[in-house]
Amino acid sequence: MLDLNELEQLVVFARLGTLSMAAQELHISQPTITRTMQHLEETFGVPLFIRGKNRIALNDTGRKAAAQAEQLLETADNILRTVREYDQSRRTISVTSCAPAPLWYVLPALSAAYPQMTIASSLKGIPSIIEDLNAGRCQLAILPDGVQANRFRSAPLLEEHLYVCVPASHALAQHSSLTFSDINGFNFLLRSEIGFWDDMCRVQMPASRFFVQTDEYEFWELAKASSLPYFTTDLADRYLVSLSSRIKIPVTNPEANVTYYIAYRPEHQAYADSIQQISQRDFSL
Amino acid sequence: MLDLNELEQLVVFARLGTLSMAAQELHISQPTITRTMQHLEETFGVPLFIRGKNRIALNDTGRKAAAQAEQLLETADNILRTVREYDQSRRTISVTSCAPAPLWYVLPALSAAYPQMTIASSLKGIPSIIEDLNAGRCQLAILPDGVQANRFRSAPLLEEHLYVCVPASHALAQHSSLTFSDINGFNFLLRSEIGFWDDMCRVQMPASRFFVQTDEYEFWELAKASSLPYFTTDLADRYLVSLSSRIKIPVTNPEANVTYYIAYRPEHQAYADSIQQISQRDFSL
DNA sequence: TATTATTACGTTAGGCGTAAAGATT
DNA sequence: AATCTTTACGCCTAACGTAATAATA
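Above: the input entities. Below: the structure tokens describing the complete assembly.
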């Protein structure tokens, strides 16, 4: 039977051309690699080398064998990798969400219910999320209402409502509620990594410009130092700091008041259930 | 690094379900296979088994690993086989011919020139011969004139001329030469394994019936015991027995007087040359 | 009680490196 | 002289089988 270690020596020798260089690269002695080549020839049962007194080279058969050995080693490596990855995926719950806020609830719930599992999360656009769910790249997906994911089970998870935050002196501060057409044209401070909210702002407020802040600290400094309006939501207020000096005005468009659904394949019902159970301790829809 | 021996034990265990049955099939002791499974788990670095006190089974990951291992073992076996076959092909000269007579010259010439090589020959139809040459399944091909094999080199090899053999009392015996139309309608004794001659007879003499004899002895007994005409050629007469009681009448159609060409790829020029050289001792075109 | 997996243990075969030899440039 | 392959030799790991243990059906 073939031995992958021996084949690796063959491949390295085929690449480098001399046994001594191969031995050096493989950190083994020259006699070892000599013996290995002899043993390989025995295993194949056919001549693989052209031998001089002081020189050894592959013949046609040997070159063919080395080329095939290289492929075999590669597929063997792939097997190691894929088996390890499969194992890792078995002990990982991947959640893909269209917005950050649901993750603040879902991730703690999952790690409480499955302390031994790795919880992985990512923010993506809605089409990518559907793809991930289809391909099994995630077990749980968080989508806004109105997205049909018929091939999967889904359950309502929680709601999020959008607010505009302005200083009391701001022109908008007089309204008790707002629509996107009211605020279209005003420039806004905006966080990065806010999922589908980003797209929504740009679609609903084409006349506005958005100053996107990657850094949380810098966002707040700008918010304090300027009178620029920014967005918040009920969920963000609950989990993040907010500026007491600002007034919150609800945005009434249906698009700004989202119900999130959790979607999953039947085999992952248990994950979804544990989220519902733990979440119910904290809040209810 | 993976070890194919260990993987084979894994595959057998996956098939049989218990270590002891696997050990029995593999002719090794139970402790050995236990250790191997432990070592495999180390190598993969992930759990492959579900262990009870006196029960062990593959988990999902283990099943995946076993399935992939099975494939790997198969490709490893294929490598062994193909390398051995390649070596064998390197020490074999395969000749494919459209008729038997040229082989009587070519095969002895080749084995004289290359005593250490295996000489393999086969009779085939002309399209198959071209295919074999294209696919490298033969190094030398013997084709009749008029076949264009432009992609290959070729050289005239020898000629063969067809004769009809009849008893002196036979109606055809009065002719000093014949054409296919003269003999069309007469029934003939015919040998099997005569290559393209078989097709030619049936095409040129559609009104005739042919009594094909597989056995050489039976052919001659029938020839002696009957007055049925049969074919011979100058080459056959030179190498095979002939009946002195019969008269030989040449067939004058061009199709019945063939020049054979030897076709080959440039890298096998040497084979063709050695045939020409050795053949020239015996005869010349 | 028979079957199964695992651990313990002693033996041995085989694989490795060092050293040396033979050969080439 | 330097480089390269191969052989010789001694060590030592690691792999195997036997025997024993533990647990189960």
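Note for the figure: The radius of gyration of chain B is 31 Å.
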